[in-house]
Amino acid sequence: MTFLFLLILPILLLIYSHWERNQLRVERYRISTDKVNKAYRFLFLTDLHDKSFGKDNALLLKKIEELKPRWIFIGGDFPISYSGEKTAERDEVENSCRLLYALAEKYPLYYAFGNHEEKLFSKEDFQGKQQAFRKALEKVELLENRSLRLEQDLELSGLSLDLSYYRPLLWKKKKPLGEEDKKNWEKAIEATGENCPKNIFRIALMHSPFYQAEMEALPVDLVLSGHFHGGAIGFPGFALMTPQYKFFVKNPRGLRKVGEQWHFTGRGLGTHSINVRLANFPELACFDILPMGEA
Question: Phi, psi at residue 175, to the nearest 5°?
Fold first, then answer.
């Protein structure tokens, strides 16, 4: 009996995981601050990995419309791209392109690359996939180590990491952030500083949570990351495994306060390679930035 149970259990878990990967959840986050004079709402989408919730992402688009965001911020990894030139035929961009076109008809889109965009554009085009995705990106405001003032009291930055920061880790330590990349990040965030009010809420899109700690030295209030897919299995407080094959990583999902900053790691929308979600539903993250004291 025990043997039969152990045989059936993995099959049941895989069936459940397949179901869960298609159950989109809206998660709401509120941050009160004395740096804004009115309320702002945006959505954070990350790690789509060319997934579609219903035909042409109809379910995702419906939920987005119901939330009525002012802006949509995209944290990277919308397509699927595999490492190496010989894998180009396996890259997938069709659903992510369609979604970008549909979103751009109604909302301002701001986009920072993840490792899959970096991989996609690092090799020769195959069957026009690169070209198709590049064309879809014309519909967004691409933030590669640069900042934009969205409102008088709200600024958005997009910070880049090259592929060397996304190598498989297993039991290795992450690659330290290089001096040149540090300077690029600092320049990007300080670019609007000359005419910038002192009291301004700054948001940064930066795909890999492994480098959130390096953000603490920068004048940023909210760091938005993805990449971890919530850690595959929703153990409280840690990830079973991240896409870089790093095991038992702390804080793989959710919003937390670190000193004077907020760090957010989204569970993401899709999966890649290890297509497992258990107690870790796909996430559409809705943020309300509110003046202090406003409910």
Answer: -70, 130
